[in-house]
Structures are given as structure tokens and as C-alpha cells.
Amino acid sequence: MKQVDVENNESSSLTNSVSCLSPSISVDSSEVNVFQQASPYLGYVSLLFVIIGWSIVYNNAKKLATRNETKALIDDTVKVINQLEDLTVTYWLAGRKSRIDTDEFILLTSAKIQTLSYKLKIVEQRDIDISCINFSKLATLMTLNCEDVDWRKTEDNRAQVQLFLEEVNSQVASIYAEFQHKYKPSIPARIGRAISQKK
Predict the structure, then answer these.
(1) C-alpha dihedral over 169, 173, 174, 178, to 10 degrees?
(2) Burial label, 126 (beta-carbon count in 10 A; 0-12, 13-18, 19+)
(3) For position 95, what pLDDT does the model report?
(4) Low-confidence ranges of the chain (pLDDT < 70)
(5) N- to C-terminal Cα separation, the chain
(6) Please, are residues 96 and 141 in contact by the beta-carbon 8 Å criterion?
(7) Backbone region of residue 127 per phi and psi (left: phi > 0; alpha: psi in -120 to 50; beta: other values)
């Protein structure tokens, strides 16, 4: 009997010790009431967050699509400028036998510049400043004294072609700079260069 009493006393003392160590947990009824009152609106709040998230995704996708479309239009415009470049270089640097007729050269030049003007008007509708493209200067450098191409010195023809190419490169760089100004890249240029170098 004494042994049973000792065991009971040890068990009760152990229970008392555990109960002393265990913190008492009490729930405030006011907090429960607030949660119960707010619970019907949690679904609406979640739906609102979903709508806001999708609207942000949609707007970002729309901006990206507009940027890509504008970039494609500018690339298409630059292709016409490259065609003008090929036409001019071929005419001024070709030999007399392989050179196209002067009237044909002027006709092709005029047609290409009209195409360039049409494409640039579309680009301008995207709020891109196209004033950097100087049609008059391009046409002048392409066709100035073109009727005397066979009688001029080769050095003079090359010098005129060089001036034309410099002007073309300057104008192409300017139109792309206007695009970058309107649609700033998401990654800064320095970071982009660092990433490309690591690759």
C-alpha cells in the first residue's frame, strides 16, 4: 500500500509540474466575433486582388505588344533605307558597263523615298519623332551630279558615297534612339551589357 501511495504521489506531482509548465491559452471572444463578421467578405477581397493582378498583367502585356509592333515597323523602315543604300553604292561605284541608266536610278530613288515616307508616317502615329530622317539630304547625296557619274573621278564618286553612308548611319541611329526614348528597355543598358558579356 505504501508503494502504491508513493507512485500516486509521484504521478500527481508530475501532473502538477506539467500543468505549471503549460501556458494557459485563452481566446478573446471579441477577436472571434471580428473574424466571424469579416469572413463573409474574404471571398470578395480575394476576388478583388485577383482582378487587380490580372489587370496589371494585361496592361504590361499590352505595352510589350505595342513596343514590339513599333520596333517591327521601325525595322521595316530601316530595310527601305538599306535598299536605298545598296542602290546608291551600286550606282556610284559600279563600272560604266554594269551601271544602270541614270534615269532609272533617279526613278528608283524617288520610288524608294516615297515608300520610306509612307512607312515613317505609320511610325509617327506611334508617337515616335521622325524628324531625324532628312529626306532632302538623303535624296541630295544620292542623286547630286549623278548624270556626270561616268565623267567624274573615281575618288569623287567614292567621297560622295562615303558622305551618303555616314548620313544614313546617323539617321538610322537617331530613329532607334527615338524608339528607345519612347519605349525604355526594362533592363538598364549597363546591366544588359554585363549579362551579355557573361554569356
Answers:
(1) 160
(2) middle
(3) 84
(4) 1-42, 186-199
(5) 84
(6) no
(7) left
Per-residue model confidence (pLDDT) at position 194: 54
Separation between Cα atoms, residue 185 and residue 114, nearest integer Å: 31
User: CB pairs under 8 A, 24+ apart, for 62-65?
Assistant: none
- pLDDT at position 96: 84
> CA 120: distance to chain centroid?
19
Helix (H, G, I), strand (E, B) or coil at 94: coil
Q: Is 102 exposed, middle or buried (0-12, 13-18, 19+ CB in 10 A)?
A: middle
Q: Say how far residue 36 (Cα) sits from the centre of its chain.
A: 48
Do residues 113 and 138 touch, judged by C-beta distance below 8 A? yes
Integer Cα distance of 103 and 110 in angstroms: 11
Q: For cell 532609272, what's the residue?
A: 104
In sequence order, the 6+-apart residues with CB closer than 8 A to the CB of 134 are 167, 171
**Tens digit of pLDDT for each residue in 39-88?**
666 677 777 778 888 888 877 787 888 889 999 999 999 999 999 999 99
**C-alpha cell belonging to residue 56:** 496589371
pLDDT of residue 23: 47
What pLDDT was estimated at residue 22? 46
Would you say 80 and 112 are in contact if contact means Cβ atoms under 8 Å apart? Answer: yes
- Rounded to the nearest 10 degrees, the angle between the axes of helix 135-143 and helix 29-93 is 20
- pLDDT of 118 reads 95
Residue 176 C-alpha cell reads as 532607334
